[in-house]
TrEMBL record:
The lineage of its organism: Eukaryota, Metazoa, Ecdysozoa, Arthropoda, Hexapoda. This is NADH dehydrogenase [ubiquinone] 1 beta subcomplex subunit 9. GO terms for cellular component: mitochondrial inner membrane. The keyword DNA-binding does not apply. GO terms for biological process: mitochondrial electron transport, NADH to ubiquinone. Residues 13-70 form the Complex 1 LYR protein domain. Transmembrane segments: none annotated. Accessory subunit of the mitochondrial membrane respiratory chain NADH dehydrogenase (Complex I), that is believed to be not involved in catalysis. Complex I functions in the transfer of electrons from NADH to the respiratory chain. The immediate electron acceptor for the enzyme is believed to be ubiquinone.
Length: 145
């Protein structure tokens, strides 16, 4: 098997992650775009300064120092994307689970006859697939509601 070792891939991934987190941290600190870009170029120069380092001990120490510096200089209120966890719009629009349709009143279901007929057929197909894949569940194995 040729190619980089798993340890090298893990190290490369950690360095890339550190670089991206560092950029995000700079974005939080510098809200003016031109100042952020200047700081990002300086930070990239720091990464490039050590990219050809071959001593494993020194490489590990540089990575640990970078992660520690990132932790120590993190912003007290980091920017978050609106739809990401912690963002202002995260899970704002809740998509109801499929089982909610089972509790619709028959008069509501009658307004969409083709949809509910197809849905019942697909539910039967799913139960058949499940029983073929995993076997039938006995009454004692079924969850109690």
């Amino acid at each position: 098997m040729s190619g980089p070792s798993a340890a090298m891939i893990a190290h490369t991934r950690r360095v890339c992650s550190l670089y991206k987190k560092s950029l995000r941290s700079l974005e939080s600190w510098y809200d003016r775009r031109h100042i952020f870009r200047y700081q990002a170029v300086l930070m990239r120069a720091r990464f490039d300064q050590n990219k050809n380092e071959r001593d494993p001990t020194r490489v590990a120490q540089l990575l640990a120092d970078g992660e520690r510096e990132l932790f120590e200089t993190q912003h007290f209120q980091p920017k978050k994307f609106p739809m990401s966890p912690g963002g202002v719009a995260f899970e704002r629009e809740v998509i109801p689970p499929d089982w909610v349709l089972d509790y619709w009143h028959p008069l509501e279901k009658a307004q969409f006859p083709e949809y509910f007929a197809r849905r019942e057929k697909r539910k039967e197909e799913y139960v058949a697939w499940w029983e073929k894949q995993y076997g039938k569940t006995s009454a004692t194995d079924a969850p109690h509601h």
